[in-house]
Specification:
single chain, alpha/beta, Rossmann fold, Helicase, Ruva Protein, domain 3, Zinc Finger, Delta Prime, domain 3, 5-stranded parallel β-sheet, 9% strand, elongated
C-alpha cells in the first residue's frame, strides 16, 4: 500500500495506519513514529497500548485518545488486533466519529498486517491522517540495499558480497534477515566490517545448497535425486512455499546469468551481485539448461505457487512432488 500524502507529517497526524506483515519492518517504522510523536517526553504517561485480539474495548481506546498529554506536546495511543471481530465496532463506528473532531494532542496509531483499501475506515484514515506501508523490498537489488542499510544501523559496515551471501542463505524474509543481521554483528565483535565469510559461518543453512542440488538434478533429469533433495528439505522443516520461492528465485537468476557476455563466473558475480560460489554454480547450470527449458520450469513453478495458495485441492508436499516430477522429465 502506498503512503498517503501526509506520510511525512506523522508527528502532526491525528491517526496513523502502519500496514505490513513483516514484524521487523513494522517495528522499525513504529520506532520512527514513537520518536517523532513522543520525542524526549515521558513515555510512561503518554503512551497507551490496546489489542482487540486480547480483549480491548472500543470505549477504552476512545477514552485514551481523548486524554491530555503529561509534560509533553503529544501522546501516542497504539491499537492492534484490527482483524479481530471485536474490533468491528471500533472501526465502523467509534473511529469515524472520533476523526470528525480528533484530539490535536493525540496520535492514534493503528497497526495491521494487511487491510482492504476499499473499506470505509481505511479511506477515512488516508484522508484524515497518514498511511505507512511496511512491506519489504521486492527486487533483489533493493533487498541487498536494505540488508546493507540494516547492517550499518547496527554499527558495522558490509563488505562487498555480504548482502548477496545473506540472501542466498536466508531468503527474502525481513524478519529472519533482521535476526541474522543481529547475530552477524555480534559475531563480528570489534571488527568494523561484516563479511561473506561471516555469513557462511554464522548463517549457513542447507536450503541454498539444496536448491543448487535440486536444479542440478532437474538439469540432469534425475527424478530420483530431485525427489530425495526435496524430501530432505521438507523433513528438515522447510515450508513448501519457502522451497518453491527459493527455486523460483534461483531459476530467475539463471535466466539473468544467461544474458551475461561472456558467460563466466566473474561476469555473473559482478552482474548479479551474488556470492562467488553461487556464480560458479549458476554458470555450470545455465550451460546445461536451455532457455526454453528454463521458461517451461518457471511456468510450472508459477502454477504450483497458485496451487499452494489454494487454487487446487492438493496437500503442499504432494504439489511439490508433482512439480519436481514434471520438470525433471
Amino acid at each position: 500500500m502506498p503512503s498517503s500524502n501526509r506520510s511525512d507529517a506523522i508527528e502532526d497526524a491525528p491517526v496513523v495506519l502502519l500496514v505490513g506483515e513483516g514484524q521487523a519492518l513494522r517495528d522499525a517504522t513504529l520506532a520512527e513514529v514513537r520518536e517523532r510523536v513522543l520525542g524526549e517526553g515521558p513515555a510512561d504517561f503518554n503512551e497507551d497500548r490496546f489489542d482487540f485480539a486480547a480483549g480491548a474495548d472500543a470505549a477504552e481506546v476512545l477514552a485514551a485518545a481523548r486524554t491530555v498529554p503529561v509534560l509533553a506536546p503529544r501522546r501516542l495511543v497504539r491499537v492492534r488486533g484490527l482483524g479481530d471481530r471485536r474490533a468491528s465496532r471500533f472501526l465502523e463506528e467509534v473511529l469515524p466519529d472520533y476523526l470528525e473532531a480528533p484530539v490535536a494532542t493525540t496520535c492514534l496509531l493503528l497497526e495491521a498486517g494487511r487491510v482492504d483499501r476499499r473499506q470505509r475506515w481505511v479511506k477515512l484514515v488516508e484522508a484524515r491522517g497518514a498511511v505507512r506501508s511496511c512491506a519489504p523490498p521486492s527486487r533483489p537489488a533493493e533487498l541487498r540495499g536494505w540488508i546493507e542499510g540494516r547492517i550499518r544501523e547496527e554499527g558495522k559496515g558490509p563488505e562487498r558480497g555480504t548482502a548477496a551471501a545473506l540472501l542466498e542463505q536466508i531468503g527474502a524474509d525481513p524478519d529472519r534477515l533482521s535476526s541474522e543481521i543481529r547475530k552477524l554483528v555480534l559475531y563480528a565483535g570489534a571488527r568494523t566490517k561484516v563479511t561473506p565469510e561471516d555469513v557462511a559461518r554464522v548463517s549457513g543453512s542447507d536450503r541454498p545448497r539444496a536448491i543448487f542440488e535440486l536444479t542440478d538434478a532437474i538439469g540432469s533429469r534425475d527424478r530420483v535425486r530431485a525427489l530425495r533433495v526435496l524430501h530432505r528439505l521438507l523433513s528438515q522443516g522447510e515450508p513448501p512455499l519457502a522451497v518453491l520461492a527459493g527455486l523460483a528465485n534461483h531459476l530467475r537468476r539463471m535466466l539473468r546469468a544467461r544474458e551475461c557476455d561472456p558467460l563466466e563466473p566473474g561476469t555473473v558475480q559482478r552482474t548479479l551481485g551474488v556470492h562467488p560460489f553461487a556464480a560458479q554454480k549458476l554458470v555450470e547450470q545455465v550451460r546445461r539448461l536451455d532457455r526454453e527449458r528454463l521458461r517451461f520450469t518457471l511456468d510450472a513453478v508459477a502454477r504450483t505457487d497458485r496451487a499452494l495458495k489454494g487454487a487446487a485441492p492438493l496437500r503442499p508436499e504432494r504439489a511439490m512432488e508433482r512439480l519436481v516430477l514434471a520438470i525433471s522429465r
